[in-house]
Recover the amino acids of this structure.
């Protein structure tokens, strides 16, 4: 099966350019800068700022990006 070519311009117009998404992204960037100022993260250190329910904390990128995958697989037969 041939992969369909993505239309990045359309994706940007639909999602990333929306006012709601711009505000969310600005908040994430602001928190990242705050943690960098405190010395908890720095560019290229492999850490992410995890955001959940209004709270933020620093964790490794692999942990942070694996959270959603783990919850998705929680009820699947592959996890049994």
């Amino acid at each position: 099966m041939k992969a369909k070519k993505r239309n990045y311009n359309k994706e940007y117009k639909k999602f990333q350019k929306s006012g709601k998404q711009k505000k969310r992204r600005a908040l994430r960037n602001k928190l990242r800068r705050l943690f960098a100022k405190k010395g908890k993260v720095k560019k290229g250190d492999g850490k992410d700022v995890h955001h959940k329910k209004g709270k933020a904390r620093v964790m490794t990128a692999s942990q942070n990006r694996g959270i959603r995958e783990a919850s998705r697989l929680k009820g699947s037969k592959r996890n049994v």
